[in-house]
Amino acid sequence: MIARKAILLITLVFPGLAVVRVSLYWFNLDYAALIKAEKYVENLVEVGKVNDRQLEYAYHRTYIHRINVFADGTWGLLGGVIAALGIHGLVTIRDFPEINYSNKLTTETRQRGLGGFPHQRLPRREHREKRNREGCCLSFGIFFI
Asked: What pTM does this model have?
């Protein structure tokens, strides 16, 4: 059980959080550069002594920063999804009792339907009969009377 949790942590949670952290760092840097480029374009427009070539060059520089900010944000979301999958896996792992891998089954493991190997588990018919004896499907059986 510890190995499963360690595998989920190592392969999903930690890398996902690392991607989020790195992409947020670059997102902040690129966003600051985008704001700076936008202010530069505003200054060029307000001055008015600029030719079209300089204005288009400044505009395309802001466009490059917009694409970088978008890509950094997308990577951050992707890393968050990867980390969320790992956390979901950690939360939904169930702790199973120790399984007896010997050829002899104890009475308790036989009654619970657990065995060391698939051929040692309860057959479906026996499992159904046991479930019906315990009354799990009593309300379901009433509908078919």
From this structure: 0.60
